[in-house]
Amino acid sequence: MAAVMSPVNSFPHRAPWWLPGGHLQTILPSLFARATVGEAPRFRRERWTTPDQDFIDVDFLVDPPGSHADLASRPTLVLFHGLEGSSKSGYAKAFACLARDQGWSYAVPHFRGCSGELNLAPRAYHSGDYEEVDWILKRMSERRGGPVLAVGISLGGNMLLRWAEESGRSAGRTAAAVAAVCSPIDMAAGGRAIGRGFGRFTYTRMFLSTMKPKALAKLRQHPGLFDERRLRAARDLYEFDNVFTAPLHGFRDTDDYWTRASAKPRLSDIRIPALLLNALNDPFVPGDSLPQQSEVGPHVTLWQPRHGGHVGFASGRLPPGNAMSMPTSVFGWLKSHNH
Fold first, then answer.
1. Residue 10 designated active-site
2. Domain ranges of the chain
3. What is the mean pLDDT of residues 299-321?
4. How far apart are CA 134 and CA 106, in angstroms?
5. Superfamily of domain 1-64+72-186+266-339
6. Which whole-number Å values give the CA distances from 179 to 46, 78, 151, 185, in the listed order?
7. Is 282 among the catalytic positions?
8. Active site residue 310
9. Catalytic entry in 13, 81, 307, 310
10. Annotated catalytic residue within 6, 30, 154, 262
């Protein structure tokens, strides 16, 4: 049975008439829908050395001219991007515009290998990497005087939820609230969904078109790291994760990775305000795999509209529409927990 919308703080998104079905609601907004308000956001980049002597690149929103808000007391919004995303992703720009308009600081940490330059260590990133999120959020909290709030998109949202679960009550010392948008909290269900039919032909091919070259570059950097023949032969994320993601990050195989990295089984362990937004027609995250409110504990709010696709949520009377309703609603929820 599919999950139902939470009666409180729900996001009653309804797709426009010209955008039927979860696939179109996913694909067209990512290609055409407007995802900025006013001037396009500008970023400055910092390179942070990781505890294992690798690096990540963090893009910070540049203040508009004439801004004199006290940096030390501002709220900071940290966005964790999705699989193969970056600060150039439409959703990252949308949240940047909202943060700028509210006078907030804003940062997009890039997962290893996602900033345009290959990282150094014999590893990349994965959906359950809560330790990396912990290090990033704590460093962000230490350098900012105001509260830190975080939003994760798709894979980044699952990572963020796993961090909140592992941190328990101590999470509140680092972040005031977290939000996860279209996150594959049941990775096995999500992997099956995009590994067959139309999803295999479109989304799987899209992801592998960038993930395979990065993995092969990693192999040149660290010869013998994995079996090149098996990686080249991988035709879906299950096979790719079996060769690359799982063994490089301490998992036995894909099944072990997808099981241990999924946030869904431990949502009731979260002890800070957490929002989970998932459209019931998301082709990446099947609606019948989503939790009910009774399964997640009192700190978690579920928004489960019937429409929206995967990080789509386009609106507007005519194409190409705009994709600001989701970022605006999620930002508003986070703002209500800014303390």
1. no
2. 1-64+72-186+266-339, 195-261
3. 93
4. 17
5. Alpha/Beta hydrolase fold, catalytic domain (3.40.50.1820)
6. 24, 10, 5, 13
7. yes
8. yes
9. 310
10. 154
